[in-house]
Amino acid sequence: MPRPSQGLFDRIGNTPLLRLDRVTDHLPGVKLLGKAEWYNPGGSVKDRAAANIVAAGRRSGAFPSGKTLLDATSGNTGIAYAMIAAAEGFPVTLCMPQNVSAERKKILAAYGAKIVYTDPADGSDGAIRKARELAAEDPEKYFYADQYSNNANWQAHYYGTANEIWQQTEGRITHFVAMLGTSGTFMGTARRLKELNPKVRCISLQPDSAFHGIEGAKHMPSALVPRIYDENLADENIEIATEDAYSMAKRLAREAGLLVGISAAAAVTGSLKVAERLQLRREQQAVIVTVLCDSGDKYLSERFWTE
Question: In terms of pTM, does the model score above 0.85?
C-alpha cells in the first residue's frame, strides 16, 4: 500500500496553461500563456520545489526521520512545507517576516507549523538570517532545507515545469518570462528550455526597488543573493513597479476573471512589456509563457483591491 502522502505528491505539477487573450487582444500575432500554479495542492508553484527538497533530503540522508525541517520563507514555500509535513508526519519550523499576509499566517496555523516571525523591515533577508542562526545553534535538531541554496529547488523546474511548458506549447514557445524570488523557477525552467531550443528568450523580472510590495520577489541588487541564482542565464532582466503589479492584479480579476497573486500579476505585467516591444518591432507569432505563481486568495486583505 502506498504511503498516505503519495497521492499528494502525485498531484503536484502538470498544471494547466491558460491563454491570457484579454491582455494581448491589441497585439495580433502574440499569444500570452500563464502556468496556473494554484492548481497545485498547496496552492502555489512552491509545491514543486518544496516536494523536491524534501525528497532529495530523504534520499541523501540529510533529512533523516526525527529531524525538524527548518527554512526561511515569505509564505508559499512555507505553506508547501507545512502541507507536506502534515502528510508525512514530520515537524517543521519556519522563519518568516511578521508582515506577510494574514491569509498566509492562517493557512500555516491550520497545518500546525511552528512559526518564528522576524522584523518586517528586514524582509525575507531577515528570515534567512534567523533560519541560519537556528540551524547553527542546533544542527542535530534541524534539517536546514535552505531553499535559496538548495539545487533541488531549481531542479524541480528543470525536470518538471520546463518540460510541461514545452509539451503544452508543442515546442512553439518563443519567450519565457518569470519573477525572481529564490530564482529557482526561472533558473530551472530557463536552463531546460534553452537546451530544448537555444532560440527561446528567457527574461527575468524583479521589483524596481528594495522597498516593494511584491511578496516573494527579490530586488537582487539590494538583497542576499540566492546561491542558486546565476545572473548570466537571463537574456534580459526587467524591473517591475509594485503599483503596476497591483493594477494588473485588479485588471485580471475584473477583465479576465482571473484572481491571481501579486507576483503573478507582476509576471503578467513584465510579459506584456515584452509583447508590446515585439509588436513595435513588427515581430509576429510570438508565444510568451509566464508563471502565475499563485491565486489572489492569499492577498484579499491587501488594501489595493479597493483603492
Answer: yes
Catalytic status, residue 46: yes
Q: Which long-range contacts (CB under 8 A, 24 or more apart) does 164-170 make?
A: 164/13, 164/14, 164/15, 164/17, 164/35, 165/17, 165/35, 165/189, 165/193, 165/289, 166/192, 166/193, 166/196, 168/17, 168/33, 169/17, 169/33, 169/287, 169/289
- Domains of the chain with CATH codes: 6-39+154-305 (3.40.50.1100), 46-144 (3.40.50.1100)
**Options 44, 263, 271, 295, the catalytic residue:** 263
Which pLDDT tens digits describe the chain residue by residue (307 residues)? 234 455 788 899 999 999 999 999 999 889 999 999 999 999 999 999 999 999 999 999 999 999 999 999 988 999 999 999 999 999 999 999 998 888 999 999 999 999 999 999 898 899 999 999 999 999 999 999 999 999 999 999 999 999 999 999 999 999 999 999 999 999 999 999 999 999 999 999 999 999 999 988 999 999 999 999 999 999 999 999 999 999 999 999 999 999 999 999 999 999 999 999 998 776 668 999 999 999 999 999 999 999 8
Of 31, 46, 218, 298, the active-site residue reads 46
